[in-house]
Specification:
This protein is mostly helical. It has three helices and no strands. 0% of the residues are buried.
Length: 75
């Protein structure tokens, strides 16, 4: 066991204390709670994972642009 100090909203004090108490009990309920909390705050894979979840994946979009020389500029 270890003691932790956290900074949080005062309104979350009871929630955080009850969460810590429940996790300290171990057992199947604590394991289930640990898994749910870990999953809810874990990173979702970053930008690459978000792009792979996009509904546009496999849409065969043509993203080519015409090549233009640009405009003439007076010196």
């Amino acid at each position: 066991m270890a003691r932790f100090e956290v900074i949080a909203l005062d309104s979350d004090r009871d929630l955080i204390r009850s969460l810590a108490r429940r996790l300290a009990e171990e057992g199947p309920d604590a394991s289930r709670l640990r898994a749910v909390v870990s999953q809810s705050i874990a990173p979702k894979g970053g930008i690459l994972a978000a792009l792979r979840r996009s509904p546009m994946v496999g849409a065969d979009l043509d993203l080519t642009r015409p090549r233009e020389e640009g405009r003439k500029v007076d010196p």
